[in-house]
Specification:
Elements (H helix, E strand, L loop, with lengths): L1 E4 L2 E3 L6 E8 L4 E4 L3 E4 L7 E6 L8 E4 L6 E10 L3 E11 L6 E3 L2 H4 L22 H4 L3 E2 L19 E6 L4 E12 L6 H4 L14 E2 L1
Parallel strand pairs: 1-10, 2-11, 7-14, 9-13
Antiparallel strand pairs: 1-7, 2-6, 3-4, 3-8, 5-6, 8-9, 12-13
Length: 208
Amino acid sequence: MYIHLVPQYFHQYAEQVKLLSVSIPELDFSLSGEELATKKPFTNKCYNVGSTKGRKALIGILLKTDKQLETFTSVYEWSVEGFGVVKHTIVNHIQDQNDDLISQDVLLALGFGGTEKNFARRVPPDYDNIAPVHIAPVLRLAPECYENNGSDSQKRWPAEVEISHNDMDHYVSHLHDHIKLHSMESERLANALINAGRYPEVGKAIVV
């Protein structure tokens, strides 16, 4: 099984951001410090995305494991200028074992054609009426981004938000998140039409 982790932080205040660590307790896996890079591979440069160290701005980190998981927890720690260390904990609920890739990248799950192979939509039905931008597990500092008044069904709501305060404002210091993920074909990484060439290569996956 391949696991495609996509640490994402959306900055709203032009603050400097750095990914400090990535871990999966269930696999006894962790990366930190100089092993990691924080890049901006998307057109919208407010998105900071974590990857392994390298020149190219890649989307995420690709792991390979022989373990068959039903759930796993990914923990991302970010250093944010003016706010200190903020944390994003995601419980990933794997919906099936039909294919060999689990990815936190929603665009890969949307499905696409135009290549030698057509790839079907692999977004869980619970998210059918939600825009991809609201499905992706992204950390934002503003607490109002996660305020659910019970009437908005167009977002995928996290489980819990911890709020802290500093001299500037109140902010999210720890986002406890959860997401459902269907398996998909690992060939999508090399054949994606959107963000083509920005995904990690299967042959360079980190074995855990």
